[in-house]
Amino acid sequence: MTIIVRYKWLLLSVLVIINTPWVVDVLGLKEPHPLHGESTRIEAPEFLFETVWSGEFQDGIDEYFRTNFLLRGVAIRTRNQIDYSLFKLRHARSIVAGLDGYLFEENYILAALGLDSLPVDSIVSRTDRICELSKNTGVPVLVVFAPGKGSYFREFLPTEYTDREGQKKDRLYNAWSDEIETRKQLITLLDLHKYFEKKIEVFPKNGIHWSQWAQVEAVNLMIEKLNELLPDSLFAAHLVIDDSYRSSEMQGTDEDIEQGLNLWQNLEDLEATYYRTHWDLLPTSSRPKVLVMGDSYAWGPVNLGLLKHGFRDSEFWFYNSGVHGPLIEDKGASPMTVHGYTNRQEFEQIISEFDALILLSTDANLPRFPFKFAH
Fold this sequence. Notes:
Elements: H1 2-27, H2 49-54, H3 56-67, H4 72-87, E1 95-97, E2 103-105, H5 106-113, H6 120-137, E3 141-146, H7 149-152, H8 159-162, H9 171-181, E4 187-191, H10 192-195, H11 212-229, E5 239-247, H12 256-261, E6 272-279, E7 290-294, H13 299-303, H14 306-310, E8 315-318, E9 322-324, H15 335-339, H16 344-351, E10 356-362
Parallel strand pairs: 3-4, 3-10, 7-8, 7-10
Antiparallel strand pairs: 1-2, 5-6, 8-9
Helix pairs in contact: 6-9
């Protein structure tokens, strides 16, 4: 009898463990220690006779239980911490440790050393299409090249990359800059890559994006350059710096790589500068309607309020694939879905409704720039 009771409790325990994920979902309970980075949670499969008969439902349930268990974050963080502490293994895609513990993403290292790939004639044709878009729509284009962490922290790049053959410092950045400089009548270049190269603390030790203070500086530099291109009746508002302070507690994206490692350990950070800011109060009617298209480096200025307070009725097309902005209801939907264009002529009509275009990229994404925007 004792053995039967024991097995009953064992069976009950197994049933509780197995059913915990869907019970947690139904009750809306918060998962402890959630993971940073790309979400791997999946929806429970729909119960249909056809999917049960084919075996799809059973496979889906198995995958759902393996992926969505309640303490998954605790388990993964523990595994990651053990592997990192004992073997310096990092369970995060493309993350590379440089000298003195500086963390990089691999594509920024390749960009700094000129080991990424893009034919020069492709740069010419892509620039041609940007010029053609500006000419056909009458909308001025401001191309912004953001700094890259690999180029900025060359002294901390890992030796397995710096020892490789075929290096050519900042190859694509230089090729793109030179080509755009030859098209000054139709494209204006704001070279923040060059501007920030002699500044200090542009990048945090454990983050990949430019630091919080550098994002503030970048906003105002973009606004100043943009105001030169706009008609006299339009002015983009500035982000006013009230004061600054130093902190060893990282804010914003200043430790985004570290967060993506999903460790229990808090890695050592360098003290950083932060600004307290407010926006100039300009009448809405005097501010321009601007389309910002770019990579993840544009999120910093956008999150600081550039679309809402610096401009009016403006949009951010993230990698030219997802639309965001104060007036966008279906955030993250494709430009074609949001604006309903189906051909080049209709696309140019949408673009012509903006007062200016900002195309922004860091050096690591120049092989893909401008992300088929002007195709």
